[in-house]
Amino acid sequence: MTIADLAGTPAPEAASATARVRTPRLRRYAMTAPTFFAVEYAINPWMDTSTPVDAALAVRQWDALRSTYRTLGHTVEMVEPVAGLPDMVYAANGGLVVDGVAVVARFAYPQRAGEAVAYADWMSSRGFTPHATQYVNEGQGDLLVVGPTILAGYGFRTDLRAHAEIAELTGRRVVSLELVDPRFYHLDTALAVLDDSTVAYYPPAFSDDARAQLRRLFPDAVEVSSADAYVLGLNVVSDGKHVLLPANAVGFAEQIGELGFEPIGIDLSELFKGGGSVKCCTLEVYS
Question: Homologous superfamily of 24-286 in CATH?
Answer without folding.
Answer: L-arginine/glycine Amidinotransferase; Chain A (3.75.10.10)
